[in-house]
Specification:
- The protein contains 9 helices and 12 strands.
- The protein is α+β, with helices and mostly antiparallel strands.
- It folds into 2 domains: 3-82, no CATH class; 100-339, 4-Layer Sandwich (Deoxyribonuclease I, Chain A), CATH 3.60.10.10.
- The strands form 2 sheets. It has a 6-stranded mixed sheet with strand order 3-4-2-1-12-11.
- β6 and β7 form a beta hairpin.
Length: 342
């Protein structure tokens, strides 16, 4: 038996580990985080696990090896249980001005502490909103000075939530806001707010969510420097906190009689139990009309989608747009809809 035989034996052992992890990640959306918080880490690794198993699939195919069956089985099961993180569409549908349009953006305080060296980031964010002209804008990590300076004069109605110890969140609307409130998420700087907005004859509740952050610098260099046990423990605590926040959100959501639009930064992917709980039977605008990876977090070389726009099935998703503008550590997203009654 030659070197290739033993090499393939070793590679198949590695393939077994990576394939088993991808299969385990299929369970993550169906297991409450509080029960197995460490398992939730797999929800962040799905794109990487898919890539590795696909590479093994190609390798075994080129080798003409019977081991081909394993990555093929794993990838097929992963697709049916988890869906795809890449949407094969030729292009995005343009946003129609006749539809209801919503933008969501974690703006990281409009760069007020200077994490991006470019000095005009705040003005560029304002200019982006003005040029894209959505009907409703949800900001996570808003800079309340922008509201005082009347930077968003096109929006007659707004709710800027400023609470001690909380990151500022804001909802701007061209339609009347008749009610608003904060969920006052405890023991964290993160929060969730809502505004009841009258669109023609319908009242729609718009949620702006910012779930627990993992406090990770989006750089492999920084991550590699942090002790792995400490990093994993902190992330597991964050996932458990997100579970509590999702439960609190669902209590409020279930008590509201209105159609709903959910925007925000979940700090988790579509493969998590938290996303599954919040999404329920709602439409995910990216899955309905998006294209490509739909990444919303600026993690170099890794397509992470943690910012979402979700709508009730009473809406028809007409378009979804991802922006590749480096104005924050997140990228803005925008979607447009029609309502059954409109």
């Amino acid at each position: 038996m030659g070197l290739l035989y033993y090499t393939n034996k070793f590679l198949f052992f590695i393939n077994l580990i990576l394939g088993s992890l991808l299969l385990a990640s299929c369970l993550v959306p169906h297991i409450f985080v509080i029960q197995l918080p460490y398992l939730s880490l797999l929800s962040l690794l799905v794109p990487l696990l898919v890539l590795f198993n696909f590479i093994f699939l190609i390798y075994w195919w080129v080798q003409g090896s019977r081991y081909l069956w394993f990555p093929l089985l794993v990838l097929v099961m992963g697709y049916f249980f988890l869906g795809t993180f890449f949407k094969f569409r030729l292009s995005e549908q343009p946003i129609d001005k006749e539809d209801i349009s919503v933008m969501s953006f974690n703006a990281r305080g409009f760069n007020k502490i200077g994490l991006i060296k470019e000095k005009t980031i705040g003005r560029q964010i304002v200019d982006l909103v003005r040029s894209e002209d959505p009907d409703i804008v949800c900001f996570q990590e808003f800079d309340h000075r922008r509201d005082k300076e009347n930077n968003f004069e096109a929006y007659q109605y707004s709710y800027v939530n400023i609470e001690p110890g909380k990151v500022v969140q804001a909802i701007f609307s061209k339609f009347p806001i008749v009610n608003k409130g904060s969920l006052d998420v405890p023991d964290t700087a993160n929060n969730a707010i809502f505004a009841d907005i009258v669109i023609q004859k319908d009242t729609v509740r718009v949620y702006n969510l910012h779930l627990q952050s993992h406090r990770i610098v989006p750089s492999m260099r920084h991550i590699s420097r942090e002790p792995k046990a400490k990093l994993i423990k902190r992330m597991a605590k964050s996932f458990a906190k997100q579970q509590e926040q999702a439960d609190l959100f669902n209590e409020d959501r279930n008590a509201s009689p209105y159609k709903k639009i959910i925007c925000g930064d979940l700090n988790n992917t579509q493969y998590s139990n938290v996303y599954r709980q919040i999404k329920g039977d709602m439409w995910d605008s990216f899955l309905e009309k998006g294209t490509g990876y739909g990444r919303t977090y600026n993690f170099k070389y890794y397509p992470v989608r943690i910012d979402f726009i979700l709508v009730d099935q009473a809406f028809e998703v007409r378009a979804h747009k991802n922006y590749d503008v480096k104005l924050s550590d997140h990228f803005p997203v925008m979607a447009s809809f029609k309502m059954d009654s409109l």
